[in-house]
Write a structure and sequence with these properties.
2 copies of one chain form a homodimer.
Chain A (H helix, E strand, L loop, with lengths): L7 H15 L3 H16 L7 H16 L6 H23 L4 H11 L18 H8 L4 E2 L1 H13 L3 E4 L5 H9 L7 E5 L10 H6 L7 E4 L14 H9 L2 E5 L1 H7 L5 E7 L3 H7 L6 E7 L10
Parallel strand pairs in A: 1-7, 2-3, 2-5, 3-4, 5-6
Antiparallel strand pairs in A: 6-7
Chain lengths: 297, 297
Amino acid sequence: MKTSLDCIPCFIRQALEVSRLASQDEKIREDIMRRALSCLAATDLTKSPPYVARNLHRSLREFTGLADPYLREKEKHNQLALTLLNDMRVKIDASPDPLLMAIKTVVGANVIDLGAKNNNRAYMQDIPSLLAEAMHETLFGQDAYRQLQYTLAGAENILYLADNAGEIVFDRLFIEKISPEKVTLAVRGAPVINDATREDALAAGLRDIVKIIDNGSDAPGTILPDCSPEFQRCFAEADLIISKGQGNFETLVDEKREIYFLFKIKCPIIASHIGLSVNKHVLVRSNDGISDIGRPL
Amino acid sequence: MKTSLDCIPCFIRQALEVSRLASQDEKIREDIMRRALSCLAATDLTKSPPYVARNLHRSLREFTGLADPYLREKEKHNQLALTLLNDMRVKIDASPDPLLMAIKTVVGANVIDLGAKNNNRAYMQDIPSLLAEAMHETLFGQDAYRQLQYTLAGAENILYLADNAGEIVFDRLFIEKISPEKVTLAVRGAPVINDATREDALAAGLRDIVKIIDNGSDAPGTILPDCSPEFQRCFAEADLIISKGQGNFETLVDEKREIYFLFKIKCPIIASHIGLSVNKHVLVRSNDGISDIGRPL
């Protein structure tokens, strides 16, 4: 999907956050903001939001000389998530429909997103309660859930597209329920915002249960032509693709193949695209267009 | 006061609004946004927010060829305000302290601000109820109010700095209480956002009761070196200056003379500067620095 002009304030906010992570010096922060404004003035807005964000964050990394401004934040989120993992698993297994509960949990974990606006993402201290609440949160996508169950039963080659650090730790809870030996987990090819890279997948301990690949790209989404041939092959050969987060949705929703998208709606543009409001949790099936979202679960 | 980097998202939002007022064509809107981003990338952020906004809106007027993108909005606000004026006056005169009630009303009217964020400004249909509520809203500035009463009693030459169209209609209610024959009302020298110009003062009928001057500037505030010699003389000679709105506060708070500022706090930067929260209504006295805000009224 195309970038909306309404996305621009969001990119500016991300640049402001990078400027604060990068320096304590107000003059340097100002220079970073000037670089961000110039970069956005020259960007092709007919591309998707993760394409614009890729160019912006690439430009800011180059300008600041910081390969990964969010590194410390990602590490903190992974560490916190690991302390919560076992408790969440116990709750999931004690529920009447553990698969559904696992999905609700990993969609809830999508709130760990440093690219989103303050009121649509979690502060560190709120993550435990937000995850507990997510288990009782309505998940929109009853029809998609039924179809996903059916597809899962026959799938041999599952590609799971991760989104953010911290969040990726919880993805394990869902992956454990869907034959991990059939799953390839894909992460970003290089740091961008707090998106999960190979380091985060390793920190999450996922190497023990799935094959991990990176997509070869530094976009906060999945821009297929930007991805490595290995990733593109995995994508083409998978008989089931499960995709986490709004960035992956924005870049893949127009693909002419079946994809199951799991995410928390974080902005009015996507809310209007889906027909639900901001902060709703969704399981969306698309195949050359979004299917009817269906009743809540 | 200096522009904060946190002001940048606000300028971007204003540019987005101009793009929508200027054209229905998404391509033209995109070009307007590119112009705004380029303009902000090159702006001197050590100046005040109204200085940056002046340059931005000047650049956008030049680019779009529209001398006044907000003209229709300003006319609508003036017309609505005129229909409410008499009722507000009756309520003010029936109150135990009509001067205080008039101040509360005109501070409440400062919510008519198309430069502010959506949740800190009034939608047209909410203006009547917001004004009624403002009469019962706490006004911070008890000490400043006592001093203003004292200063008013001796003042012979009062300069009243207006802020926005629509709002300026209600300013009459306060001016009527402070010897209008001693008041010079100053408006902007040219259109910028929905700030009041001479046309708005005339539409408000204020010519009947006060002398009207414009400040010769197209900034959404009062940048003294940018103002006409006539305005600068009025400013220097006034024995009491009453200033409406945040833009005038941002540009005049560091002046080494007594000024009474009346406004609604519309952003976290100003909230933190004043020590009160966003949306609070204030009467602030400054004289080479802000005096203690004092207890609420």
